[in-house]
């Protein structure tokens, strides 16, 4: 069985992708998992309903910027690997409030690297060889594509938002800890994820939740920006494969080859919702409204995932059509999960217009 007798730290395990990784590790491998999460607005243990009763699961409420706190966890659990997903993840929020992004994404990653290094240096030679820190990053570090071309592992970094700049910084730190201290790290850069338990500030759940309430559906700019969509469970399976078989010092791009314009995505959501939950005010496409563009809005992202496919045999199971159906069904059937987020104060207001930036 995969990861037999191994303990894996997952930072950010109460978030959208981290929780999918933990559900996958608990269901499909023998790993013991320690979920390390600060539980920010974006993190909730409700993303892991089946985990608490599992003897292979533990939760530690912990900020990754707190070195002594992390050290205590390394000493307590002696992990064989770390999957690092904890981050501030929303581009619009990074425009209004970049400070938290600098803290968690840069200082937090630095702090984790230092504690990983301390732990790794104390391991036996055999365990040192097998130890991995998998740093989970984004394709946004590469900036924006024109009409042609794909991001590869050698595309130069050109981040455009405070979020992507903070992620790019963290990628560079990870690279430096590998080159300078020989810490066995692997980096992944993935495209846009969607699926169950995504916080409703992100495009797809935002539109589903608003569409169900028959509220206006705000499309930024002309809606012709392109994202390359990947179903979150496919990302989780790619990450576990990279942890298991990825070569230390390498980076792997992950993406589903599912490029869609934002407008296409929103129209598709409208049509599926109309079929599943007919509205009272006619077709939901009528709710689409074009609103002010995001400052510094990247036009197009698209991933070349040849390397992970060739070297590790990974392939996405879902295409956009099957994944969006599953996702919309999930949000319709799990209203209490996102209603709780709204009840706790998330009101879906537009942020990131650079009118209230903290300077
Ligand atoms: P998310 O915002 O849903 O979850 C982030 C989690 O990190 C939350 O549980 C939060 O509580 C936790 N966290 C935040 N600050 C912390 C801190 N200081 N200490 C400990 N925990 C903290 O994010 P996500 O969409 O699941 O993204 C996870 C990772 O994947 C991020 O690193 C992100 O950059 C990367 N990524 C995301 C996407 C995407 O489409 N969502 C695509 C590629 C890469
Ligand atoms: O590419 C990977 C990245 O994808 C991740 O690193 C980020 O963590 C993740 O948030 C995501 O970033 P995006 O900015 O691409 O995702 P978001 O869901 O915020 O927006 C997707 C696109 O939809 C983007 O072009 C902006 C647009 N949009 C978004 C919202 C919330 C709208 O047009 N209307 C909206 O209401």
TrEMBL record:
Membrane spanning residue stretches: none
Keywords: Lyase, NAD
EC number of this enzyme: 4.2.1.46
Keyword NAD: yes
Statement: the UniProt record of this protein carries the keyword Lyase: yes
Top EC class of this enzyme: lyase
Protein's name according to its UniProt entry: dTDP-glucose 4,6-dehydratase
Organism: Bradyrhizobium cajani
């Amino acid at each position: 069985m995969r990861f037999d007798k191994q303990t894996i730290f997952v930072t950010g395990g109460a978030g959208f992708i981290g929780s999918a990784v933990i559900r996958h590790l608990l269901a499909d491998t023998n790993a013991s998992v320690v979920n390390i999460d600060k539980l920010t607005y974006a993190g909730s243990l409700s993303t892991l309903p089946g985990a608490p009763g599992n003897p292979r699961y533990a939760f530690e409420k912990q900020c990754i910027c707190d070195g002594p706190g992390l050290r205590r966890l390394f000493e307590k659990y002696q992990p064989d690997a770390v999957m690092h997903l904890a981050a501030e993840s929303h581009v619009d929020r990074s425009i209004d409030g970049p400070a938290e992004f600098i803290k968690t994404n840069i200082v937090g990653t630095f702090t984790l690297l230092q504690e990983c290094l301390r732990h790794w240096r104390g391991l036996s030679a055999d365990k040192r060889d097998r130890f991995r820190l998998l740093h989970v990053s984004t394709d946004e570090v590469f900036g924006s594509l024109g009409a042609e071309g794909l991001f590869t592992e050698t595309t130069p970094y050109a981040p455009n938002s405070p979020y992507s700049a903070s992620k790019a910084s963290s990628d560079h730190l990870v690279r430096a800890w590998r080159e300078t201290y020989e810490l066995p790290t692997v980096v992944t850069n993935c495209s846009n994820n969607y699926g169950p338990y995504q916080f409703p500030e992100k495009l797809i759940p935002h539109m589903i939740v608003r569409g169900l309430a028959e509220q206006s559906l705000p499309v930024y700019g002309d809606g012709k920006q392109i994202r390359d969509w990947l179903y979150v469970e496919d990302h989780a399976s790619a990450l576990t494969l990279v942890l298991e078989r990825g070569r230390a010092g390498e980076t792997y791009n992950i993406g589903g080859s599912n490029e869609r314009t934002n407008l296409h995505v929103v129209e598709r959501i409208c049509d599926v919702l109309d079929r599943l939950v007919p509205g009272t005010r006619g077709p939901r496409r009528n709710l689409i409204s074009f609103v002010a563009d995001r400052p510094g809005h990247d036009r197009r992202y698209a991933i070349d995932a040849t390397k992970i496919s060739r070297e590790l045999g990974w392939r996405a199971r879902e295409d956009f059509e099957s994944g969006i159906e599953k996702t919309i069904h999930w949000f319709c059937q799990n209203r209490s999960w996102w209603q709780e987020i709204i009840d706790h104060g998330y009101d879906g207001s537009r942020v990131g217009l650079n009118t209230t930036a903290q300077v």
